Amino acid sequence: MTSKMHTAFRGFNIRHKTIEVDGLEIFYREAGLDNAPTILLLHGFPTSSHMFRNLIPALSDKFHLVAPDYPGFGNSSMPKVNEFDYTFDHFAEVIDSFIEKLGLKTYSLYVMDYGAPVGYRIAAKHPERVESLIVQNGNAYEEGLMEFWDPIKAYWKEKSKENADVLKNNLLTIEATKWQYTNGVRNPETIAPDSWFHDQYLMDRPGNKDIQLQMFYDYGSNPPLYPEWQAYFREYQPPTLIVWGKNDYIFPAEGAHPYKRDLKNVEFHLLDTGHFALEEDGDFIAGVIREFLEKNAVVLKAA
């Protein structure tokens, strides 16, 4: 096998690692060279770093990729809801400590769904570290919170059993998880059922649905911070790539367009797919990430 072929296949050598952070075992996937620019991949609900399983090898010849699982998600520690403060503030603190432990000095932030409020908290705290933003169906504007959010907003106003049961029965079932993956896609046959089975298995662990309900409730802490994140965009102007599934009912395209109000260097792609755009358009997304980062001089350093 030639060295060129070795290079082509090196990306499949993903390391599956765990590190202790604030008393928790945080699982993460890592690939690429240490001297390559880092892309920190922050996942959404109800998934984990598993959502990046195909993107990581597609980019690891030129970039250093790190994808952690939040507490209660994926393979990270899952303390009970009465043993851990399940909030977006706390998630951002844990991931910030994770970044410190790994010694990541600068990075591009890939944010999706829950990854946006986690990542934007970190970016606003450490703007000098963020080389660029890659945004896939992750909200920072009120325009993006439409009909899907009505029962969740009701839970924000009244944290009752009745409102919790509505969310549990409509958002935490295998049917709902499959819907997240298949709604709005061009061709459902391209979406592997492994993804929703994987997510649901983890969500069906005893106590996990209580965690998910708490995160639904705490999502209400994010809209009040939108003006702060928008101010960060305007002041620091990170180069930003938008790769957004336009048929997403959870985070519709109305939430993508406002980024262009505050950011000057934006590359904008609305993709004809759904919530988990990487599942159907991963090849395209990997390609535009590579071109976007090279265009913005986020490139492999000399050895």
The CATH class designation is: Alpha Beta
Side by side, the strands of the main sheet go 1-2-4-3-5-6-7-8
Overall number of structural domains: 1
Q: What is the ordering of alpha helices and beta strands?
A: HEEEHEHEHEHHHHHHEHEH
Strand content: 15-25%
CATH topology: Rossmann fold
**What is the number of helices?**
12
Low-confidence stretches: 1-11
Query: Rg to the nearest angstrom?
Result: 18 Å
Structural class: alpha/beta
Largest sheet: 8 strands, mixed
Nearest-integer average pLDDT: 94
Number of strands: 8
Distance between the terminal alpha carbons, to the nearest Å?
Answer: 23 Å
Q: What general outline do the C-alpha atoms trace? A: globular
Helix content: 40-55%
CATH homologous superfamily identity: Alpha/Beta hydrolase fold, catalytic domain
Examine the secondary-structure arrangement and name the CATH architecture.
Answer: 3-Layer(aba) Sandwich
